[in-house]
Design a protein that fits this description.
74% helix, five-stranded antiparallel beta sheet, 42 helices, disordered N terminus, mainly alpha, extended
């Protein structure tokens, strides 16, 4: 089960799946630190592993398919074709989630990405539209409920790759688009298709569960999941690759209703492997259900499965299921039987149906043991044992038929011959094959019935089915050692699915291109596979031929093969067999996944799949098993009609009786369903054949990637633009390349074009869409290189600035100290000079008196202050006396009022006494109240505990009751079923009896009808035969009639032709006779001919003029080409100017660099000498260190190689020793056997003794060789010990050198930075030079093309001139001849008439030839003019299309801007709402605190009221106040109790949080300690390794002194080779200089050629002046016409653009009006802004009217109106948001006000209620509560303080953790640096492998020893063979001796 992990039984939470879905930061860091060269890192094939390995490209061009590439891998170099070499992707693309995003899409990159993700435990990877799932062979926690929540409702790009992401996409797509979805899961056996199908079904059941769960009914989702055990038991088996392989294809449709809930499910199966039922290979097993029936759990099902199914305990009793494995370690058959039985119950199978399935399955097993023997000498088969208990009897009993009838049907089946039924005898083989066919057919029909039954139970009739999500689980493309009928069927299915995938994939891809507005021509990649599919499906294709051959009884595999080759042999995809494993293959087909060779043996039998009709009739008519009768209902059994008529019916109905016809019908339905669905693709892979987690086999994976179509999909992606980035992300990432260009335009396309043009990025490698930038494969890596170069520069600048900022304060301090020291020195010198000067002494002594105060002035001020204070004191005394007098008056008045009150109120003592009594009663009641409260608390505790116990008991009782109810319901249901079944059985028995009677009558009638029908059919057949014969005769006669008519027409045409020729000959004869009589008239005719010739000559001159016009046009083309050449020259001059500008910039940078160097030299002038000395010493030390390192490395290399070779030799010797010991044991066994037989056979004693002596000799020789080998192994071990000691000593020296090397590397680091910067600048200049050279080469090629065209035109012109001269010469010649003939005629007259006639004929022939040439030239001219007109029309159409595309582009960009603006507005709204939410939350908190404060103020006001009423001493009011206080106390008690509980809960939460924080802190401290311990361990390990290496180096130093000398010699040779390489380098540099000089000469020659061209052009212009004057008028008129057409098109386009912009402006105006009306309705107060908006609208309307008049100003005014519209919309949206926020705030405040009022009302109600319960409470309780409140407040304060301390400690611990992590990171970096040094040393060690000659000599010695041992082994094997021959002779003699006495 791939990637599944089960929950524990304890209910623990699901584990974290992050590490199995997303790469960790450590992985990303390690990937980014990988060694990578952007230009040289490549992949090459690895012949050892069958995969790929990474190397560096030394030479070769990857873009040229014919070039050879030299690649270095380590110190080895390989040569490959450029097509076998692929580029390596940058480190940022390591473990990429979608392989389409790889910038280099090649096979190696795809394999590497899958391999790294798989070994990092990430088994899911996207590849375009599909997800690739690799079988992990281990359970990962990635299919849990926790993972399901992660993918629920998420898009594919929001979560990591997962199978459930595809399922979620399908489910959401079904809900949103209401379109059916299909998931296609393919792969090889063992790839995990079935498991992934189950995971998809489980996810859909989780996501879309119907919610209709009850206690008595099983839910629909449980039923869907429960189908898996049944289908796996009956359809899965063990194969060589997979223990639980599905041997059938299934298409599962899960139906949903309109709300997305589960509504049912149905299953369709394909291609069940029926041959596995009767045959299996040794490592395979049959279907699981056969082995489950024999398990122990079956004894508890009914009366026991074994008893019911008549099965034994031994599986080997059944040959059908015991030919291979019978036990699988990874499958528990007993547990699987339990699951299968539960699934039958869940799906609602009745007991009869379930046991019927089991019994028929057992019958299939038992059929294999039905044996037949030959009856006498006849070929008749018979079954010898059909008694009770035999297998034949058991099989018949399980099928419910009579055993004798069944065996008779097998041995003597009935067939129909004519109109009579006869029996046909069967031999043993035929009977056995018939039994196997019946067994396979029963199992196949049983499996299909199970699927139908599951479909019936899985449909929920109460829910309406709207859509479905389907899952197709089918085998992938198969290429085996032997490929038969099953393989070609599966491969054809995969061809169709791959065509469907290609069509769908690139339709989606191309729709993306068209939607983005990219120039793209639609390509249907589904047609790539059309040839193979047509070959299968055409009328005389492969399937048609197979179907036709299956209908012929005498057809054989040979005839089928010959027919295939005759019909399909000429097709390009029908090939000869090419299989190396199957030498008897008959043909091969070229599929999309490769060439597959097929063997047609047995195809016809498999396609027919025959069954014995007699047996079927017995099973249908006589079986008492209802299920088997139902299975064979659709089979006719024994047909009553003739086979011929039946064949005709089959042909007419095409009912699909053969396997291929049924298969094609189901496949057609499947493809129709898929084309109506939205597809999703899943590809499953097998990583290795030995089922080891994390291990990969490259050939196996690449084979599956080819067969699964992954590489095909990537090939299609490579044709387009696989990499794409949104404009926002593109600008954010690549603005660093050209910031000004990015900010130069707000339009995305303009900005991106500006950026790309600045960095000289070719436009062929990318396209700009409306929302994304599309890149071709490999283009994004080049862009990343540009960015990385700039980022590296910036990082170096930042490092320099950071170093400046760090060191600048120290520098400033030192500088200030220096200045202060100078100031101090200067001041001290001044003091020393002036300390004895008199004036200086006076100034120093009088300086203290300067600024002292005047004492008289101070006294005067104090007196004034004292006087003022005394006056104030006197005023206060006077006011005091006045107030005292007024106080006395008030006291007297008060006493008077008190007396008056006493007199009015009476005696107060009574009231005091009553008050004392009431207070005493109150105290007593308070005591009682406290006691009752304590009792009440105890009772409350008892009640709560009792209630808890009662709840537990109630739950237990409820569970028991529910279980009892369930059992009762089950019992009732079973009883009802029993009664109903009994009733139905009785009714059925009655019906059966009635039906039997009816059947008897019908059978009699049927026989009569059959006889009549057979006679009628025979008559019909005869008539039809006669009709066929007549139709054939008719067709033959019609053919002969057609042939005769054709012959007659042909003869007629020949006769007419002959008559025509005869007449022509007669006419010629008459003309010849009349020539003599018409000589006088011929003279006149000749003169007329001469006149006509003169006219024709004039016509030729006019045609010549036309030709000259054509020459003018060609000259015009030459001018245009010359203009292009001049433009290219101008571009070349511009490029040269740009190059000069770049050179000037480089020189400026060089000057700046020199200035910086001068500054550095000036700043470091003081220490330069010391630095140079240090550098010299360091260089010497580095040389010594390098020499020592190289020596150490060589020694380590030799030691390692020697160790390895010695170990290999020892291993080989041990293996040989084991083999020899085995041979020795075998010989000793033979020897013992021979000794035991000596006593019986004395005759052969001498031969045995000789063999014994030979064996002893061989054993002695072997023991001697073994002793020699053991001695040599001991010597080798001693040598290894010496080597190890020397190696340790060398390691110690190496450690010292490493420490010194680290110190020197720090110094060399700064120099390397400077060198890198200079190298980068140099590489940039080289790149610029390369680009210029490429452009120069392109210009040269274009110039050469133009020269070639010019030469061609010039040659054509010369040819035309020559033709013209020839024509003129011929004309002159003709005139001369005419004059000559005139003279001759006048002189000779009639005598030369015949000669004149001959000359006349010659002249006519020449004239016709000249006319033909003129006509040809005229036709050529017409064709050229037509082509020119066509090109002009195409140009105009393209220009119009371009204008339309530009308009569409502009509109789409504007729409994109509007969408972006709307998105940004909504983002702003969301942020505003979040801020409003935070504000409202703060306001609610403030309101709650304000409410609490108001409550406290309210309490204080009540207390003050109580005090006032007590002062008035009104008893009633006082009592009411006390009652109010008590009620308030009661209310406060209730509230305090609530507050106390809340505080306690908060306290508990704080304590838990504190404990969690402490535990987390402890965990972090433990992690830190663990990290420190690991760090110390690592350090100790490093130190230990260094110490060991020191000891090893010391040991090896002594042993390899000689090796050092040889190495030094090798170093000298290498230095010589280095000098030679430097010499070659200088030579190459000189060659480069020569090439540059030659390039300059070529440029000069180019200039000269251009001058010559100009001269020639001037000459041509002068020569063509006359022709131009004649054709000038025509060309000017044509040009004027074209210009007028262009202007018309331009005006039309401008008018259309103006109209579109006007419509956009109108739409914008309408939007503005709507927004303004909304704003006026909602914001009536904002009148000023509305007026400004209306003014803007009026202005826009005025501008729109102006646009109609003036087309040029319309664009700018439209932009202004759009900008104002945007601002107005933004303002309106902002105002609407503010209004909405104010309304929400008002609503919140209104709710708070209502809530406060309700609370006040509630408090008043509680106050009234508390007045009634006054006597129950008291002040003591209130005081207690107040003290408790104070205590709780104190505790709360203390808890707050503790929490603050805890948070402080937590922050400290976090800071400490950060510091420790930083330290850990630093230590890790140091460790990585050390590891890097170790890797460098190891690399150097590997470079000196060639210098281990001594080790090779040792290996040669070992090889010689091995050969010697091998020879000895051969001798011993020969002796053993002799002994075996001798033993055979002895045994033969012994047999002869034993037979002698008996005879």
């Amino acid at each position: 089960m791939p990637g599944h992990i089960k929950l524990t039984k304890t209910g623990q939470p699901d584990p974290d799946p992050s590490e199995f879905l997303v790469p960790s930061m450590e992985m990303k860091r390690s990937d980014m630190n990988k060694v990578y060269d952007t230009k040289r890192s490549v992949w090459i094939p690895d012949p050892k592993s069958g995969g790929f390995r990474e190397g560096l490209l030394e030479s070769g061009d990857l873009d040229d398919p014919s070039s050879k590439c030299l690649v270095s891998v380590g110190h080895e170099k390989f040569t490959h074709k450029s097509t076998e070499v692929g580029k390596v992707n940058p480190p940022k693309f390591e473990k990429v989630e979608d392989m389409v995003n790889l910038t280099f899409l090649n096979d190696a990159s795809v394999f590497w990405n899958l391999k790294t993700r798989y070994q990092a435990k990430m088994i899911h990877t996207y590849s375009g539209l599909f997800v690739v799932v690799v079988n992990p062979y281990k359970r990962y926690p990635i299919y849990t409920h926790r993972v399901a929540k992660v993918y629920l409702g998420k898009r594919r790009n929001e979560v990591p790759p997962h199978l459930w992401s595809i399922a979620e996409t399908a489910y959401r797509g079904m809900l949103t688009t209401t379109k059916n979805q299909a998931m296609l899961i393919t792969g090889e056996s063992g790839a995990g298709k079935t498991e992934n199908t189950k995971k998809v079904i489980t996810y859909l059941a989780i996501v879309a569960s119907s919610g209709k769960k009850s206690d008595n009914k099983v839910s629909l989702e449980d039923q869907i999941v429960a189908t898996n055990p049944i289908l796996e038991s009956y359809g899965n088996a063990k194969t060589s690759r997979n223990d639980n392989s599905s041997r059938f294809g299934k298409f599962i449709r899960i139906h949903f209703n309109a709300s997305g809930r589960l509504a049912g499910c149905d299953i369709v199966s394909y291609l069940l492997e029926k041959s596995r039922i009767t045959e299996q290979q040794e490592v395979e097993r049959s279907y699981h259900i056969f082995y489950q029936l024999l398990q122990e759990f079956g004894n508890g099902i009914g009366e026991g499965l074994k008893n019911t199914c008549h099965l034994s305990d031994d599986i080997y009793d059944y040959v059908y299921v015991s030919q291979g494995k019978t036990k699988v370690e990874s499958i528990d058959d007993n547990e699987e039987l339990e699951f299968t039985n539960d699934a039958f119950n869940v799906l609602g199978f009745s007991e009869t149906e379930k046991f019927g399935c089991f019994m028929l399955t057992a019958a299939v097993m038992t059929f294999g043991e039905v044996r037949f023997v030959q009856k006498g000498r006849d070929e008749q088969a018979e079954c010898p044992d059909i008694t009770t208990g035999s297998f034949a009897f058991k099989a018949a009993t399980l099928c419910g038929v009579d055993v004798s009838a069944m065996i008779k049907a097998f041995c003597k089946p009935r067939i129909k011959v004519g109109t009579e039924w006869v029996t046909k005898g069967q031999n043993v083989e035929q009977a056995t094959n018939a039994v196997g066919g019946i067994a396979r057919a029963i199992y196949d029909r049983l499996f299909k019935w199970l699927i139908e039954k599951c479909n019936e139970t899985l449909i929920d009739p109460t829910m309406k089915k709207v859509n479905f999500c389907a899952v197709l689980d089918i085998a992938g493309f198969e290429i085996f050692d032997y490929n038969g009928f099953e393989q070609i069927s599966i491969n054809f299915v995969n061809e169709k699915l791959q065509q469907f995938f290609n069509h769908h994939m690139f339709v989606v891809e191309q729709e993306t291109y068209i939607g983005e507005g990219i120039d793209w021509e639609m390509v249907d990649f589904g047609l790539d596979l059309q040839a193979c599919i047509v070959m299968f499906e055409k009328p005389m294709g492969l399937w048609a031929i197979l179907e036709e051959e299956s209908l012929f009884p005498k057809a054989t595999d040979k005839s089928f093969e010959e027919k295939l080759k005759a019909s399909l042999g000429k097709l390009p995809i029908f090939l000869k067999p090419q299989s190396k494993t199957d030498k008897h293959a008959h043909f091969a087909l070229s599929h999309y996944a490769g060439i597959v060779s097929y063997n047609v043996t047995g195809w016809l039998e498999k396609n027919k799949d025959p069954v014995n009709d007699s047996v079927v009739e017995i099973l249908k008519s006589t079986s008492c098993n209802d299920l088997i009768v139902h299975l064979w209902l659709d089979h006719p059994g024994q047909p009553t009609a003739t086979p011929k008529e039946e064949g005709k019916k089959k042909k007419k109905g095409s009912g699909g009786k053969t396997v291929s016809s049924v298969y094609l019908v189901s496949l057609t339905e499947l493809m129709t369903t898929l084309y109506n669905c939205e597809p999703h693709f899943v590809r499953c892979l097998v990583p290795n054949t030995h089922k080891k987690p994390g291990d990969v086999e490259p050939p196996l994976i690449m084979h599956q990637l080819t067969c699964n179509g992954v590489l095909e999909g990537i090939r299609i992606c490579m044709r387009g633009f696989p990499n794409r980035i949104y404009y926002k992300d593109f600008k954010w990432r690549y603005w660093i390349l050209a910031k000004a260009e990015i900010e130069s335009s707000s339009e995305n396309k303009t900005a991106v074009y500006a950026l790309m043009d600045k960095i000289s990025f070719s436009r062929d490698t990318y396209r700009l869409g409306h929302t994304m930038v599309f890149f071709r494969a490999g283009a994004l890596a080049k862009l990343e290189e540009y960015r990385d170069d700039i980022v590296n520069k910036l990082i170096r600048m930042l490092q320099g600035q950071a170093r400046l900022n760090i060191l600048k304060p120290d520098f400033c301090k030192r500088r200030d100290r220096k200045e202060l020291i100078k100031v101090c020195q200067r001041k001290f010198r001044q003091y020393m000079q002036m300390r004895n000067w008199g004036w200086y002494v006076i100034i120093q002594k009088t300086r203290a008196l300067i600024g002292l105060p005047n004492p008289e002035e101070e006294l005067r001020q104090l007196e004034l202050k004292a006087k003022s204070t005394y006056d104030v004191y006197m005023e206060k005394l006077e006011t005091k006396t006045k107030l005292e007098a007024e106080n006395k008056i008030l006291e007297e008045e008060n006493k008077a009022t008190l007396k008056q009150i006493d007199s009015e109120q009476g005696n107060m003592s009574q009231y005091h006494e009553k008050q004392a009594q009431i207070s005493a009663q109150k105290a007593a009641l308070e005591d009682e109240l406290s006691q009752s409260q304590s009792k009440l608390a105890e009772l409350e505790q008892d009640r709560s505990s009792a209630a808890a116990q009662r709840k537990q008991k109630d739950t237990e009782v409820g569970q028991i009751k529910r279980e009892i109810q369930d059992l009762e319901m089950v019992i009732l249901k079973l009883e009802q079923d029993k009664s109903s079944r009994d009733h139905t059985i009785r009714g059925l028995n009655d019906e059966i009896a009635d039906q039997d009677e009816v059947l008897n009558r019908l059978n009699k009638e049927k026989k009569l009808l059959a006889e009549n029908n057979s006679k009628a059919e025979e008559d019909q057949i005869n008539v039809s035969d006669k009709l066929d014969h007549l139709t054939k005769l008719k067709t033959k006669l019609e053919n002969t009639l057609d042939e005769l008519e054709g012959a007659y027409d042909k003869e007629k045409r020949n006769r007419a032709k002959i008559e025509k020729e005869r007449r022509q000959v007669e006419g010629d004869l008459k003309l010849a006779q009349q020539n003599v009589l018409e000589l006088e008239r011929s003279r006149k005719e000749f003169e007329a001919i001469i006149a006509r010739k003169e006219k024709e000559m004039n016509g030729l001159h006019s045609k010549l003029d036309d030709e000259q016009g054509l020459m003018g046009k060609s000259q015009k083309c030459i001018k245009e080409l010359q203009g292009r050449v001049e433009e290219m020259e101008e571009e070349l001059e511009a490029e040269r100017q740009a190059r000069a500008k770049a050179e000037r910039q480089r020189s400026d940078l060089a000057r700046e660099l020199e200035e910086l160097g001068q500054r550095l030299s000036e700043a470091g002038g003081a220490t330069s000498a010391q630095i140079e000395l240090n550098k010299k010493r360091e260089s010497e030390l580095t040389k010594l260190r390098k020499d020592l390192e190289e020596c150490n490395i060589q020694q380590e290399c030799t030691v390692a190689s020697l160790k390895k070779r010695h170990q290999d030799a020892i291993a080989e010797m041990l293996e040989q020793i084991d083999q020899l010991s085995k041979i020795k044991n075998r010989v000793e066994k033979d020897k013992m056997q021979i000794l035991s037989e000596i006593t019986d056979v004395r005759a052969a004693f001498e031969e045995i003794s000789r063999s014994k002596s030979a064996a002893e000799k061989s054993s002695k020789s072997l023991t001697n060789t073994l002793n020699d080998l053991s001695k040599k192994c001991e010597e080798a071990t001693l040598n290894l010990g010496d080597f190890n000691n020397s190696k340790r000593k060398m390691a110690a020296e190496n450690a010292d050198l490493l420490r010194q090397l680290q110190e020197l590397e720090n110094v060399a680091f700064m120099n390397s930075k400077v060198r890198d910067s200079l190298n980068i600048a140099l590489e940039e200049q080289k790149h610029i030079c390369d680009e210029e050279s490429k452009e120069r080469i392109s210009l040269l090629s274009k110039f050469r093309n133009l020269e070639h065209e010019y030469d061609g035109l010039r040659e054509h012109y010369h040819e035309e001139l020559m033709n013209r001269e020839n024509l003129e010469a011929q004309g002159k010649k003709a005139n001369v001849e005419v004059e000559m003939w005139k003279q001759k005629y006048e002189i000779e007259g009639i005598q030369k008439a015949e000669e004149l006639e001959m000359s006349k004929l010659k002249l006519q022939a020449r004239l016709s030839e000249s006319q033909n040439t003129v006509d040809n030239l005229h036709n050529k001219q017409v064709q050229l003019e037509k082509a020119k007109a066509k090109l002009e029309t195409d140009k105009e159409e393209l220009s119009s299309q371009l204008d339309q595309a530009q308009m569409l582009h502009a509109t789409m960009e504007k729409r994109a801007k509007q969408f972006d603006r709307i998105v940004s507005e909504w983002k702003g709204k969301v942020s505003g709402l979040s801020l409003d939410l935070d504000v409202s939350q703060n306001e609610t908190r403030n309101a709650s605190s304000e409410l609490f404060r108001i409550k406290s103020a309210y309490d204080e006001s009540i207390l003050q009221l109580d005090e006032v009423r007590r002062e008035n001493k009104n008893l009633s009011n006082e009592i009411k106040d006390i009652m109010d206080q008590i009620s308030e106390g009661g209310r406060s008690i209730h509230e305090i109790d609530k507050i106390r509980r809340r505080l306690e809960s908060e306290k508990l939460e704080l304590e838990s949080a504190l404990s969690e924080a402490e535990s987390a802190l402890e965990q972090e401290e433990n992690k830190v300690l663990r990290a420190q311990l690991e760090l110390t361990q690592v350090r100790q390990e490093i130190e230990r390794r260094l110490a060991e290496k020191d000891e090893e180096f010391q040991g090896t130093k002594k042993q390899f002194a000689k090796a050092l000398e040889s190495m030094q010699a090798a170093l000298e040779s290498e230095s010589k080779s280095k000098v030679e390489a430097l010499r070659i380098k200088k030579k190459l540099e000189a060659d480069v200089g020569d090439l540059e000089n030659s390039l300059e000469h070529a440029n000069a020659a180019n200039m000269e050629n251009q001058k010559n061209i100009k001269k020639i052009q001037d000459y041509i212009r002068k020569a063509q002046m006359q022709l131009e004057e004649e054709s000038k008028a025509k060309s000017e008129a044509h040009d004027a016409l074209l210009a007028a057409v262009r202007r018309a098109h331009a005006h039309r386009n401008a008018l259309e653009e103006a109209r579109t912009l006007l419509e956009q402006a109108d739409r914008a105006r309408r939007m503005l009006e709507n927004d303004l009306t909304d704003c006026n309705e909602t914001l009536g107060a904002q009148t000023v802004e509305n007026q400004s908006l209306t003014a803007a609208r009026r202005k826009c309307e005025i501008e729109i009217e102006a646009l109609n008049n003036d087309l040029d100003e319309m664009n700018s005014e439209a932009r202004l109106s759009e900008e104002k519209a945007r601002s107005a919309m933004i303002d309106a949206a902002r105002l609407a948001d503010e209004l909405r926020a104010e309304q929400e705030l008002a609503q919140v405040l209104e709710r708070d006000r209502k809530l406060v009022e309700a609370q006040v009302k509630d408090a008043a109600c509680r106050l009234d209620e508390a007045e009634h319960s006054f006597l129950k409470g008291g002040k003591k309780a209130m005081n207690k509560m107040e003290t408790r409140i104070h205590e709780l407040e104190a505790e709360l304060d203390s808890e707050n303080r503790r929490m603050m301390d805890a948070t402080k400690n937590l922050k400290k611990s976090e800071r400490r953790i950060q510091e420790l992590t930083y330290q850990q990171e630093e230590d890790r970096k140091n460790h990585e640096r050390m590891q890097g040094l170790v890797d460098q040393l190891q690399g150097k060690v590997k470079s000196y492998k060639k210098q281990i000659e001594e080790a090779e000599e040792i290996a040669a010695l070992n090889l010689a020893k091995f050969r010697q041992v091998q020879g000895n082994l051969q001798d011993s094997s020969e002796h053993a063979d002799l002994s075996e021959h001798a033993l055979a002779k002895i045994k033969a003699a012994a047999r002869a001796g034993s037979l002698g006495p008996n005879m």
